[in-house]
Design a protein that fits this description.
This protein is mainly alpha-helical and 179 residues long. It is built from eight helices and no strands. α3 packs across α5. It is rod-shaped, with a radius of gyration of 48 Å.
């Protein structure tokens, strides 16, 4: 059925499947610049030694594309790390330093403030003990009346503590002799 010219030249008619197969391979040659397609082609060509030998140029080009893509990814990772480091040095580190400084300054300020007695608890204690004065009861009292009892109270408290300390020392001495 083939004409005599084709028979003498050793050519045969190609089927439509073979023609389509050649078109697909030709389109793959054009699209090998895409790393995804290159990876698929390498995987396919590595399965079959005959296909790899038949399309060795395509195989080598795909391997080259994959190496170039890998180098590009490494370069992008390094650039990203450099940008993150620069961002940290320009913005992150000063903000962190400022935050630590504010926290430490707050602690220093709180430590330097004088101790404050809870007035409500002290008032309640005085009322329960029955030692409430005019000031504690809320009567009208002048500022000078307020100051004098507080001074007297502080003096009596210091005398009481001194006498307690002396009595403790004398009991220790007496206990030491008895042993």
């Amino acid at each position: 059925m083939q004409n005599d010219g084709e028979m003498r030249a050793g050519k045969r008619r190609r089927s439509l499947v073979e023609v389509e197969e050649e078109r697909v391979w030709a389109s793959l040659y054009r699209r090998t610049a895409d790393p995804m397609i290159a990876a698929e082609l390498v995987a396919h060509l590595e399965k079959s030694g005959e296909l790899r030998f038949q399309h060795s140029g395509l195989y080598l080009r795909c391997k080259q594309v994959l190496r170039r893509e890998k180098a590009r990814q490494v370069r992008l990772r390094k650039i990203g790390a450099g940008i993150r480091w620069a961002f940290h040095m320009v913005i992150g580190a000063p903000l962190g330093f400022t935050g630590r400084l504010i926290r430490n300054m707050g602690a220093v300020i709180l430590a330097s403030l004088p101790e404050r007695e809870d007035r409500a608890a002290a008032q309640l204690h005085r009322l329960k003990s029955g030692s409430a004065s005019q000031v504690d009861a809320g009567e009208d009292v002048s500022p000078s009346e307020i100051v004098h009892p507080l001074r007297e109270q502080a003096a009596t408290e210091s005398r009481q503590q001194a006498s307690i300390g002396a009595s403790q020392r004398s009991t220790r001495r007496a206990g030491g002799r008895a042993r």
